[in-house]
Amino acid sequence: MLDQHEVPGALRSGEAGGMALGVDGLLWGKSRGLPRPYPLVCHLADVAAVVLALWDLVLSPGQRRRITHGLGLADEEQAARLVALWAGLHDIGKAIPGFQTINPDAFAALVDGGRYPVWKELGRLSHDRATHLVLGLLLRDRGYLLDQADRVASPAHRVAQLLGGHHGRFHEPIGHKLWKFGFAVAPELGDGPWQVQRVAMFDLLHRLLGCPEPPSEIDVEAGVLAAGVTVVGDWLASQESFLTERLAELTLPAGGLLDAQAVAKHFARSRELAPDLVRRAGLGRVALRQGSFRETFGVPPRPLQASIAEGLPGLVRGPGVLLVMAPTGEGKTEAALFAARLLGEAAGTPGLFVALPTMATADQMHARVAAYADRCLEGSAALTLLHSMAWLSDVTADTSDEGRVLSEEESKTTPTRWLRGRRRGVLAPLAVGTVDQVLTAVLRSPHNALRLLGLAGKVLVVDEAHAYDAYMQALLRRALTWLGSMGVPVVLLSATLPARVGESLVRAYLDGAAPGRDVKLGGLTYPGWVYADAATGEVTSRKVGSTQTRDLAVEMHPYQDGQRMQLAERLLAPVTEEGGCAVVVCNTVADAQDTYAELCRRFADKPVEVLLLHARLPQRDRAGRTEQVLHWFGKDGVERPQAAILVATQIVEQSLDLDFDLVVSDLAPLALLLQRAGRGHRHPGRTRPAWATAPRLAVLTPVDHAGTLAVPRAWGGVYEESLLERTHRLLTARAGAPIRVPADVQDLVDQVYGDFADGDERLLQLDTARLAGELAQEQLAGFAAIPRPGDVEDLHELSHGEIDDRLVATRLGADSLRILPVFVADDGSRWLDPSRNPSLEDVSGSEKPITRQVVREVLGYTIPAPAARWAHTLAEAHPVPKAWQEHPWLADLVLLPQHLTPAGPTATRVGGVTLRVDPELGLVITYQRNSQ
Questions:
Q1: Are 264 and 209 within 8 A, CB to CB?
Q2: How far is it, in rounded angstroms, from Cα 200 to Cα 263?
Q3: 850-899 pLDDT, tens digit each
Q4: Does residue 703 have a pLDDT over 90?
Q5: Contact 455, 440 (CB under 8 A)
Q6: How far apart are CA 651 and CA 833, in angstroms?
Q7: 385: which strand partners?
Q8: Strands (DSSP E) found in 422-527
């Protein structure tokens, strides 16, 4: 690597090649918040210096190898110089008239004396697009191949495009077959002295980086990673504190011209400062102590954990995918963390990202990963929590507006303020978040290259791999293909994964690692694990014993209209009469709200606690109730109630470590019923009431007068009717025979999710509808997702392009809006709480800046809701305060007015829908017939 104090000989001797007049320091690159404009050439040199530090201190061995290989090189030092050079060139498009006029005073000084012709308005050209158009010809003239017949084989085109994409979107080339660059196609670039300066900056940076030779090729993966590194380097070098510090050391000579030696000196100083800049941002690599499973976790391994700890080391030679399938309670999380260390060491990707299905499960996993890291880290490494509401969490939130960096008094995993910034958390060495953070990396959306860079230095662990619909599974497969192509190890965990789904995930990963290779999986084992080596495609399967062997009593309880609550009351009677803890899992929020309200009424005179938990609660209430649920029913719950009933939605079936004496559930597909049943008798050795001697699942099943399954209309958007029908028939046919866990699980799951029914017209129709729906979701995912790496001809295919914004999402039909209830008094005053504190005016930003603490407070009152027509009507009728309209977190909130009366807040009617915010039930949405 070029020593940070070394100045290339050509610059020491003053032989700058066309640099006799130097580079114009009056061409500015940064000015906002600064005492004076910052010279563009200095910013380019800063970014190159920071990227060299990122290469040395942050990029994992696996990332460095993948970039080097993708450039057709064998020398990592040469690859580092190339990437740093390209990153330095990212803003060369600012040396155009249009950009320079953004600062009128600086532009006036620039054109004073006639050095530059007065620019006549030709239309605005963004500087990132200008970078793309400038570099194609500059690179070609310096030895980079520009083959207009083959974009893939054209390094000049690829570098121009990846640098033009440093704001998150790659630009489409001008022209179809003979794509073009330069002044001829974009007069807005400016010719004459503008081009002279761009050439001078290019040549100077090229010499500063040791004149690296052009690469013979740049594959898609290397281009994406280089684009991501460029973005990070730019963000770090653009911090106002850093720029202000550098300006204090910078003096422009008379006339503003900087000679090559002055720029080289500036570059050398930036290289001295860059490592500390990177470290203060919280970036770095993970070092985990080696040790046995017992040494790592302080307890002897269970059979699954022992099998992986003993068998995996002999199989791992580099990247690969590990699929672990076992019932709840077998220690899959600890097994995954142990395996991730082994895989990360072998692949040169020591970081970790654990992906969960929901925010609640991610919050809980964050604490477990933090405890693991505190035990095993050598040194420190930032751990971030990544989901849309993560920064509201007490464990990650920065409560001061100034932020802070890691100190000796804080945990060794405390993230810095910089890593808490938007889109940056994925760059932390350790991260926990929702699976959406992974899926977003393969959507045609801005900054997917940055997200892929963040994943590429880690081992990805995907928990609850069964918990996603066809759309999300298709996106997950695409993500696995990209990760396989970049040499990123993956661990997949599931308790109830259909074999065909598990096989498709493994094949997707291997397809990225070696496209077109014929791989024979040989079937999946349950309980057990499968490891597939990325380099060879060799697949190893291991079956293991279980510590959770048990017979699960499954009771089918049919009911007709109006009988559900009477049936539920009878099933829960032992809890109310003799004590114990039960959970009632409902398929919709509305069902959960109705069930809770009715149970409270029926058990009003009983000594039993009834609690409600679902997604449509104000954020702060949901967090408090989740904490209470874990406190009462969790593994370490110290105040388990004498008698309690939790009414909840699917939020409790995934990853939350809860234990109940009885599980009552609405009918759901078998895999999910088994997940729910796993919350019963979860923790051995717990004292239970006399009536709860064995695990028991009571399934509430809606039927008609003939006993045929009658799926409620409201369930249609939640589960496929064919899966409900198959589950109903399978469990009914078993006539109450217990399910042997784990022996029966895989076979029963595959029966429900397996091949089409033969000879049963009704089931065949339902199966056909399900398949059509799955194919439609997969097709939609195909439109929203970026192509497979091997199918990418041009980097602009990774950007949004012509895809409708509504299609670029990680979940279909999810509660994607955030409702902010506003309680309106008779005098017109508006409040965020019916108790009239705080007022909307206090947090509207009308009289003072909107601080981070204010934003946290406001979002704490918000409620997730579906993006329905009524929400758009509300947004138009009740706009957010003016000061919020440009704020990234507040602009898209939808205000829901609720009029305050002596009897309490009144509901709001809009578009055939009634909306009511209840302090116990949360957001209650009532649809009139035929309304949407």
A1: no
A2: 12
A3: 888 888 899 999 999 887 888 889 989 999 998 998 887 898 899 999 99
A4: yes
A5: no
A6: 26
A7: 432
A8: 430-434, 458-462, 490-494
Q: Strand, coil or helix: what is 824?
A: strand
pLDDT given for residue 816 in this prediction? 73
| Amino acid letter for position 851 | T
The answer to whether 505 touches 476, Cβ cutoff 8 Å, is yes
pLDDT for the residue 353: 98
Phi, psi of 811 (to 5 degrees): -135, 140
Q: What are phi and psi of 420, to 5 degrees?
A: -80, -5
List pLDDT tens digits, range 578-594. 999 999 999 999 999 99
Phi-psi sector, 780: left (phi>0), alpha (psi -120 to 50), beta: alpha
- Give the whole-angstrom CA distance, residue 626 versus residue 525: 34
Q: Is the pLDDT of residue 166 over 80?
A: yes
CA distance 285 to 270: 22
Distance CA 868, CA 863 (A): 14
CA distance 783 to 775: 12
Give the Cα separation of 609 and 589 in Å (integer).
Answer: 20
Tokens of 38: 């910052």
Place of tokens 């959507």: 443
What is the distance of C-alpha 379 from the center of its chain? 26
CA pair distance 231, 723, nearest whole angstrom: 45
What number of residues does the chain have? 932
Measure the CA–CA gap between 316 and 856, rounded to whole angstroms. Answer: 44
Residues 600 and 645: their CA atoms lie apart, in Å, by: 10
Characterize 838-876 residue by residue with b for buried, 16 or more Cβ atoms within 10 angstroms of its Cβ, and e for exposed: ebbeebbbeeeebebebbbbbbbbbbbbbebebbeebee
217 and 155 Cβ atoms separated by less than 8 Å: yes
In degrees, to the nearest 5, what angle opens at C-alpha 145 toward C-alphas 140 and 147? 105
The two three-digit tokens of residue 625, written as one number: 């109730």
The structure tokens listed for 449 are 């290259």
Q: How many CB atoms lie within 10 A of CB 569?
A: 14
pTM for the model stands at 0.91
Task: Give, in order, the Cα–Cα distances in Å from 684 to each of 329, 494, 528, 642, 681.
Answer: 10, 21, 21, 18, 7
* Contact by Cβ (8 Å): 544, 307: yes
Cβ 699 vs Cβ 665: under 8 Å: yes
Q: What are phi and psi of 351, to 5 degrees?
A: -75, 180
In this prediction, residues 762-768 reach a mean pLDDT of: 90
b/e sequence 453-473, b meaning 16+ C-beta within 10 Å? bbbbbbbbbbbbbbbbbbbbb
d(CA 786, CA 796): 10
Phi then psi dihedrals of residue 882, to 5 deg: -55, -40
Looking at 133-142, 161-170, 475-484, 795-804, which range is the least confident one? 795-804
CA dist 91 and 885 (Å) reads: 29
User: What's the CA gap between 772 and 756, in Å, rounded?
Assistant: 12
At 929, which amino acid appears? Answer: R
CA distance 688 to 575: 11
In 3D space, the residue among 552, 456, 548, 442 whose CA is nearest the CA of residue 792 turns out to be 442
- Alpha-carbon dihedral sign for residues 60, 61, 64, 70: negative
Distant-in-sequence, close-in-space partners of 52: CB < 8 Å, separation ≥ 6? 1, 2, 4, 80, 84, 271, 274
Tens of pLDDT along 84-111? Answer: 999 999 999 999 999 999 999 999 888 8
CA-wise closest residue to 117 among 177, 219, 193? 193
**Residue 798 contacts residue 792 (beta carbons within 8 Å):** yes
Axis crossing angle, helix 619-633 with helix 359-376, rounded to the nearest 10: 60
pLDDT at 655 over 70: no
How far apart are alpha carbons 393 and 408 in whole angstroms? 22
CA distance 787 to 794: 10
pLDDT at 932: 46
pLDDT of 11 higher than 60: no
Q: Which residue has the tokens 């695990």?
A: 695
